[in-house]
Amino acid sequence: MSYIVPRDKPDRCTNCIYMDRITYDCKLMYGDDYPDFETQYNNCPLVEIPTPHGRLGDLDKLMTEFMDSDLDHLQRDDWKEVIQIVADAETVIKAEGREE
User: Fold this and answer.
1) pLDDT tens, 38-70?
2) Staple 40 to which of 33, 34, 78, 86, CB 3.0 to 4.6 Å?
3) Alpha helices, H only, the chain
C-alpha cells in the first residue's frame, strides 16, 4: 500500500505526522514490527511522485469501465469512444510540472 501526501516526506519517522506520539508506532504500518526507526523509515510506505507527470488516475477503475462498455461494435479505426472513456476518467492527482 502506498500513501501520497501533499508535502515532502519527513527526514525521519519521529518528524512524521503519522507517528503516534505516545507509542511511537507508525499509523501507516500498524502491526509491522521493526527493530528500530531506521529500518522502519527504509520500509516507509510514503512515496514521492516524480514531476513532471501527467494526470494520475485509477487504472483498475478505468479497466472496469472498458470491460463494462460495449466496444464490440467499434471498427478497427474508430476508437473515438475508447479515447472518450479515457478522457472522462476521474483524475486522482492533477498533472504537475508541465503544460497540459
Assistant:
1) 898 998 888 878 778 888 888 888 888 877 877
2) 34
3) 37-42, 59-68, 80-88
